[in-house]
Amino acid sequence: MSQYFLISSNSVFTHQVLPVLYTIICACAFILNGLAAWIFFRVPTSSALVVYLKNMVVADVLMLFTYPWRVVGDLGYGGLQLKLIVCRYTAVLFYLSMYTGITFMSLISLERYFKIVCSTSEVSSFLQRVSVAKGLALLTWGVMMFFMLPNAILTNQPMPKVFSCMALKSDLGQRWHEMSSHFNVGIFWVAFLLMVFCYTSIACHVYRSYKRVQQDSSVARRRSNRSIFSLLAVFVFCFVPYHICRVPYTLSQSHKDDFSTYNRFILFQIKEATLFLSALNVCLDPVIYFFMCRTFRESLLQKIIKLQNDKESET
């Protein structure tokens, strides 16, 4: 495959297809997350679950803020200065927000596990405290900022002749980038395994409870299954494909001599395609809020009913 073909194919996908897709999800996510934020921050923080869900909203809004910068840059506007802003700031904010959201998903699964499966234990009562949840939320943001913000600080080299984000990083910056990428991948897989364990345990516990009482609880069972399935489905669909290719792609950036031009091109295409699925998460998280948080669900339905009544009264 010729170098011309690589560049041409790359430009079709990244400079024509992706900007359109990101614009669509940006518009949808702006409406959905604006509504979610408006509802959630009128709801009192009465449980650990609400604490984690509110922090997920914050992470999604920060992640959403980076999309317009990417769209404008991919369309070829803004020149090298915009590319510098994307490499140094908005890309770092994107990954910071994404992995913070992933961590809160794992904390939600852990909170659900202790509340449902181990509800009588002292650990459960401790983790259910709002103050403890707020402390874990602050710790999560602090740890993620510690690992991610140096990627912005260490992107401090002069503009190279052949532009790339890695070329803007110092030697320490490139090593930190590789280390933080592996750290983030580790965060993901720990979160994934934790969620599989927690929700498998919850499903088994709920099934045994229904079987023990021997009564028709099909409605409650379906509701529980929807709650479990919604979070796992969003997590697997959005994040698993990206993290399967994340490690080889990072290695192809840091050790170019070990990868052919064609292999680097393929890894880049796969990375961009699966990264879009991760970005789609900001549109799907409101589904999690609806199924997992009764207060959010009731508030949303009340707002919809009120709007319908207002329209009927006007007519």
Layout of helices and strands:
Elements: H1 3-40, H2 48-65, H3 67-74, H4 79-116, H5 122-127, H6 130-153, H7 171-213, H8 218-254, H9 261-279, H10 281-292, H11 294-314
Helix pairs in contact: 1-2, 1-3, 1-9, 1-10, 2-4, 2-6, 2-10, 3-4, 4-6, 4-7, 6-7, 7-8, 8-9, 8-10, 10-11
Mean pLDDT: 83
Q: Would you identify the regions where 5 or more consecutive residues have pLDDT less than 50?
A: 1-9
N- and C-termini, Cα separation: 64 Å
**Total DSSP E strands:** 0
Say what the CATH topology is: Rhopdopsin 7-helix transmembrane proteins
Order of helices and strands: HHHHHHHHHHH
Instruction: Provide the CATH architecture.
Output: Up-down Bundle
User: How many distinct helices?
Assistant: 11
Main sheet makeup = none
What does this structure look like?
The chain has 315 residues and is an all-alpha fold. The chain has a single domain (3-314), classed as Rhopdopsin 7-helix transmembrane proteins. The protein has helices at residues 3-40, 48-65, 67-74, 79-116, 122-127, 130-153, 171-213, 218-254, 261-279, 281-292, 294-314. The model is unreliable at 1-9 (pLDDT under 50).
Fill in the keyword field for this structure.
single chain; 315 residues; mainly alpha; Rhopdopsin 7-helix transmembrane proteins; 84% helix; disordered N terminus
Compact overview of the structure:
The chain is an all-alpha fold and 315 residues long. It has helices at residues 3-40, 48-65, 67-74, 79-116, 122-127, 130-153, 171-213, 218-254, 261-279, 281-292, 294-314. The chain has a single domain (3-314), classed as Up-down Bundle (Rhopdopsin 7-helix transmembrane proteins).
